[in-house]
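pasting for ref
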Amino acid sequence: MSGVLEIATGSTLGVLLGMRHALEPDHLAAVSTLISEERGPSRTAFLGICWGLGHTLALLVVGVMLIGLRAEMPPRVADLFELGVALMLIGLGVRAVVRAARQGTDGPSALHQHGAVVHRHPGPRHVHVGGMTLARRPLLVGIVHGLAGSGALTALVLATLPSAAARITYMMLFGLGSTIGMAALSGLLGWPLAHIGGQTRTLRAVSLIVGCLSATLGVGWGFPLMSRLIR
C-alpha cells in the first residue's frame, strides 16, 4: 500500500512541477511571441500543446541517454543549450517586431503546401504527422527549451529516484505537466486576443511589446552565458 501511495505522490508531483515549469520567464516570453499572432483561445492553446510536445520529446531523448549512461550533462554543454535559448528569444523577439510592422489588415498568414496544392491561410506554419497537424515553430521552440532543461532534470531524477523506469516515468509526467500548463496558459491568453481580433493597431502593439520584451530577456540571459563560454 505504501509503495502505491509513493508512486501516486511522485506522479502527482511530477505533473505539478511540470505545470510550474511551463511558467518560467523564458518559456512565457517565447510562447507569447507566437500566440500574439493568433486570434482565439483554441488556436493559442493548440500552440501551447505543440510547444509541450517538443519540450517533452527533447527532455526524453536527452534524459534517456543520460540515464542510460548514469551521467550528468557537462556544464559547458548545458551552457551552450542555455545560450541557444537566449539566441532563440532574441530571434523570436525581432521576428515579432518585424511581423508587427509588415502584417496587413487580415493579420498574419502562412504559405503552406498539401501535396501539390499550395495555399495561404491564417495561422502558423505547420507539419502533418499521420493524422495530426502540428504547428512547426512552437514545436521547434519547445525542443530548444527541452534541450536546455534536460540536464538539470536528469541530475534531479538520478539523485532521487531508484530505478531507470521510475526516472523515465517521472520525466514523462513532468513533460505532461509542462504541456498541460502551457496549453492552459496559452488558451487563457487567447481570450483577450480574440476580443481585440479586429483591432489591427492593438494587435500590432501587442506584437511589438512582446517582441521587445523577448529580445531584451534574450540579451540579458545570453550575455553572462557568453562570458562564461569564452573564458
